[in-house]
């Protein structure tokens, strides 16, 4: 047998024995291995049995599937390979069996399967995680499916809107309604105008506004909180 272990940082999120010839991995609840993260596509990739081994196949994912730091389309898995999907990693054990007592996240209506995929800049994420270990990393707290999701602000400029790095839905919301721009040791919020107001702590932002920890940004009734990750 073989197994996959899903990690977020050093924490085990789930384990799955590869007990079928083909197993789907992604954010959707109908996947065999669910990775509950907005940087992961609903049906991200697949592990397929080929002869005596296993092959990892990317399913045309938005943010890519990485093994050994390289983006792959198709990759024969070797023992101890580490697969990177967004901010999660999956360890391949060619002779393992899942521990029934391992921590796992539940599938269900509170998951993110129906939400928009957030685009993750892999190079920027790796750089930020390498340079900010032990230091402060700011993030947006985003409401998704009745739960809070923290989106680290790892880029010099993060967009918010219908087509932004952070999705914001609503009538008349622009593809990019606002930008969060790195400024010194912090960030500034820049409103991109339009018919939908962008507010910080209830005050309309006409141009740009410095952000401080705990500030609440509201766009079309959706509240995002600027806070330390």
Kindly describe this structure.
With 229 residues, the chain is mainly beta. 4% of the residues lie in helices and 45% in strands. It has one helix and 22 strands. Strands 2-1-11-10-7-8 form a six-stranded antiparallel beta sheet, with no helix packed on it. The chain is elongated, with a radius of gyration of 19 Å. The two termini are 38 Å apart.
Compact summary:
The protein is mainly beta and 229 residues long.
Features:
single chain; 229 residues; six-stranded antiparallel sheet; mainly beta
Q: Count of helices?
A: 1
User: Low-confidence segments, ≥5 residues, pLDDT <50?
Assistant: 104-114, 127-134
Average of per-residue pLDDT values: 82
Question: How would the global form be characterised?
Answer: elongated
User: Order of strands side by side in the largest beta sheet?
Assistant: 2-1-11-10-7-8
For the biggest sheet, the summary is: 6 strands, antiparallel
Spell out the blueprint of helices and strands.
Elements: E1 3-8, E2 11-17, E3 22-26, E4 33-34, E5 45-50, E6 53-58, E7 65-67, E8 70-72, E9 74-76, E10 82-85, E11 88-93, H1 122-131, E12 138-144, E13 147-152, E14 157-161, E15 166-167, E16 178-183, E17 186-191, E18 198-200, E19 203-204, E20 208-210, E21 216-219, E22 222-228
Parallel strand pairs: 3-4, 14-15
Antiparallel strand pairs: 1-2, 1-11, 3-5, 5-6, 6-9, 7-8, 7-10, 10-11, 12-13, 12-22, 14-16, 16-17, 17-20, 18-19, 18-21, 21-22
């Amino acid at each position: 047998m073989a197994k996959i272990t899903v990690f977020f940082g050093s924490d085990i999120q789930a384990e799955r024995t590869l007990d079928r010839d083909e197993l789907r991995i992604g954010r959707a609840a109908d996947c065999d291995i669910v990775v509950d993260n907005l940087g992961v596509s609903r049906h991200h990739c697949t592990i397929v049995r080929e002869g005596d081994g296993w092959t990892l196949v990317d399913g045309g994912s938005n943010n890519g599937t990485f093994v050994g730091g390289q983006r792959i389309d198709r990759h024969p898995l070797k023992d101890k390979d580490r697969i990177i999907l967004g901010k999660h990693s999956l360890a391949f054990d060619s002779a393992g069996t899942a521990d029934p007592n391992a921590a796992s996240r539940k599938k269900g209506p509170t998951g993110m399967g129906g939400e928009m995929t957030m685009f993750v800049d892999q190079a920027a994420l790796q750089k930020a995680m390498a340079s900010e270990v032990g230091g402060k990393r700011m993030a947006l707290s985003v409401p998704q499916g009745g739960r809070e999701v923290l989106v680290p602000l790892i880029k010099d400029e993060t967009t918010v809107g219908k087509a932004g790095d952070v999705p914001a839905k609503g009538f008349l919301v622009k593809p990019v309604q606002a930008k969060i721009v790195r400024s010194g040791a912090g960030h500034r919020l820049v409103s991109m105008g339009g018919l939908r107001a962008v507010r910080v702590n209830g005050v309309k932002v006409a141009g740009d506004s410095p952000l401080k920890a705990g500030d609440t940004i509201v766009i079309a009734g959706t509240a995002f909180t600027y806070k330390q990750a």
